[in-house]
Design a protein that fits this description.
The chain has 155 residues and is mainly alpha-helical. Helices cover 81% and strands 0% of the residues. Helix 2 (12-31) packs antiparallel against helix 3 (35-46), helix 2 (12-31) packs antiparallel against helix 6 and helix 5 (67-97) runs antiparallel to helix 6 (103-147).
Amino acid sequence: MGWCVYYRTEGPLMLAHHTMSILGILLALVQGESGIETCAVLFGTEITNPLLQARWFLRKLGRYDTLAGDAVDALFVLLFAGVRIGVGGRMLYCELASPRPSLAVKGGGVAIYGLSCVFMVDIARFACRKSAGKFRRWKEQCKALGANGNSGRTG
């Protein structure tokens, strides 16, 4: 969080994510409850981080626009949706239905899940843009091959 603030590497959404994570940990420590749930949420929110790092490395190596970049992006979207939205939604339901967690813990759960939903919208937009761009390039390649009289068949 300090790195992000000092070097201004992240926007408000990511800073909100970091702030909520820190506050969630502090809340669990101060209240002495919901430690397992807090760890599970932190695990779920950070499980996609290695894929984001892989994406960064692929960009730096000039290999992002390859099959490896597509695979990393697809796995990121699937993992984010499955874990943060799917599993996270189930965890939030269980937390809200249970009488044991305090109102502050329940509010924090709603807040972090809401933030995940905002991230998911951004990720879905990115995936749609990337897929549409790839499809457009594929169509142009097919059209160019057809215009050159090359049907792609050999023999």
